[in-house]
Amino acid sequence: METARSFSHLLKGQNPPFSLAPILNHFGIYEVRTRILYPELARIIFYGGHPIIEVNSLFSEENHRFSVGHELGHVILNEANGKDRFAISCDIKEEEEKADIIGRELVIPSWAVSFLTPRNGLQFQKASMSSLTLKNVARYFGVGAKVMRDRLVKDFGWYEIPNKK
Ligand SMILES: [Zn+2]
């Protein structure tokens, strides 16, 4: 996580949605391209000797950003575990969950979450999260609402207040 946070610091000075280009460059990832994939959301493959990330064109753009973050999560985990940077991890549930957490840190950095207060016009509070504001904040970061929710609830322990009818 420390490593992931040091990478998400590379995005400082940008406004959301953050371009992951500095991190992709760091790891020598040549290109991100969209392809129809089944069943995975994204993968890292070698093309002409260059590592590239393919994201699934069957999913929307906002899913792509998180998918790229997730794949970068695998790269960061591989390096932390002393493996080859682009070693394939074979669907180990624990690894997938860790890659998700790192992916969320990269697309929604901790330092940027710390700015999420009602003051900057996000109509968003730690103690109350309606799905409307969740959608707004998700759009602000260029991610899907589910990823945004997981980020705040799973990673930061914020809680949701059910929608009033
Ligand atoms: Zn994965």
Summarize the structure.
With 165 residues, the protein is mainly alpha-helical. It has helices at residues 2-8, 21-26, 61-80, 93-107, 110-113, 131-141, 145-155; strands spanning 31-35, 42-47, 50-56.
Word description of this protein:
Helices cover 45% and strands 11% of the residues. A three-stranded mixed sheet has the order 1-3-2. The model has no long low-confidence stretch (mean pLDDT 85). The protein is mostly helical and 165 residues long. It has one domain (2-155). The chain has seven helices and three strands; from the N terminus they run H-H-E-E-E-H-H-H-H-H. The longest helix has 20 residues, at 61-80. Bound molecules: zinc ion. Zinc ion binds next to helix 3 and helix 4. Zinc ion (ZN) is lined by residues 70, 74, 96, 99.
Unreliable runs: none
SSE pattern, N- to C-terminal = HHEEEHHHHH
Class computed from helices, strands and strand pairing: mainly alpha
Widest sheet, order of strands: 1-3-2
Strand segment tally: 3
Radius of gyration, rounded? Answer: 16 Å
Task: State the distance separating the first and last CA atoms.
Answer: 39 Å
Number of domains: 1
**Overall helicity:** 40-55%
Average pLDDT level: 85
Biggest β-sheet strands, sense, barrel: 3 strands, mixed
Determine the number of helices (DSSP H or I, runs of at least 4 residues).
7
How does the overall form come out from the CA principal axes?
A: globular
Present as ligands are: zinc ion
**Percentage of residues in DSSP E strands:** 5-15%
